Amino acid sequence: PNKELLHNLNVPDQFVGSGTSYLTHYLTDETNDPVMNRIKALKLRNSEDDKVKIFFVPSYLNGDDGVFNMPYYDLLVGMDLTVFPSYYEPWGYTPLESLAFKVPTLTTTLAGFGLWVKEHYNMEHPGIEIIHREDGDTNSVAMAIAEWVRNYTTEGIAETDRDRNNAKDVSRIALWDNLITYYKQAYAMALDRVNERLKEMPMGDLNQNLSFIEKQLTVNNPSWVSVMIHRSIPEKLLALETISKNLWWCWHDEARELFRMIDVDKWRECGHNPIVLLDSISLNRYKQLENDPGFVKKLEEVYEHFQEYMEGKKQMSGDGVAYFSMEYGLHTSLKIYSGGLGILAGDYLNQNRTLTRQDWKPVIRELRLLQWGYCTDMVILPRSCLLRGNRKLSMKLRIL
């Protein structure tokens, strides 16, 4: 948490100036953060004359963030409006959450939930605004959002209550009581298809001995062999390889700092991907790091913490938990997510590590990878994300 902010909240009579007036929590790389850079480019300074005030909260609101110390839903219920102008969102659970708490919200036609409301709620819905959005219309979308917010500020108490009650009513179409019928229909259809395929399968004597004749084809085509050239890391630095292959590093500042110490420019160029970073480092640089006492000491400290964390696996007990999701937002360098659902799934995984060791349970996470099926969400940025395809790969990733 921002220490200057905490001081000013606790001792308002002894105000201390902060390096930034936006952040509630420190960023690891504030200089290169796209949201911060966009705020500065628009010259939004949170001054008394600014009509728009911005509070950037780069923290998971789990009730123990150090500033609000309230769960996300406790904060959400106190909001007047929420805005989620998605460029791409397979579903978009955040607008639905707002509606469930009677908070009017905004989404777009590029969010699955927005389209779903338009199709299944055949009445006026002042509790949710669904803006039409396409490629290249960022300015018109921004103007539509501003107009919606401005109109809300002019409403009276009766209109505000109408909007809130309608928000709650719209959310009811997503109740499980209303969706269970479709689930049962889909399940019955799946069973029927299985039964049809079983009837078409040859059910002869599966134990009979079958003879096969293998024919060797002679061809003149060249035989191609794939060659994988692996990096050569000095023995003293081998712990880097181990740490880079476990997502533990992305949750610990000391591990990220370790990779930045190798080469800060390459660390940024490779998108904060430690595996790519280690592949790009020259042998001469590895030798320099090997003879750098400060770096070696840092590596030993980080690796010791990593080993302590991994030792916790031995203390797991009880039944495990299996969690399936189509995407996981674990880190920007691992492109296996596309929207809010993936970020939520990644947060669940992140939260597992915060449990006390006696509460640890084995968690198996499974997903099907989509090549290029991802985007990067940024708030108040033009063309904030791009879906480049959804061609499926016949691969599965299991995270233990």
The arrangement of helices and strands along the chain is HHHEHEHEHHHHHHHHHEHEE
Biggest β-sheet: strands ordered side by side in the sheet: 1-2-3
Structural class: mainly alpha
Number of helices: 15
**Average pLDDT across residues?**
81
Estimate the global geometry from the Cα principal axes: globular
- The level of helicity is 40-55%
Assembly state of the chains shown: single chain
What is the CA-based Rg, rounded?
27 Å
Distance between the termini: 30 Å
* Overall strand count: 6
Provide the β-strand percentage band.
5-15%
Please outline the major beta sheet: 3 strands, parallel
Low-pLDDT stretches are: 372-400
Structural commentary:
There is one protein chain. By secondary structure, this protein is mainly α. The chain contains 15 helices and 6 strands. The strands form 2 sheets. Strands 1-2-3 form a 3-stranded parallel β-sheet, sandwiched between helices. It has a 3-stranded mixed β-sheet with strand order 4-5-6, with no helix packed on it. Mean pLDDT is 81; it is low at 372-400.
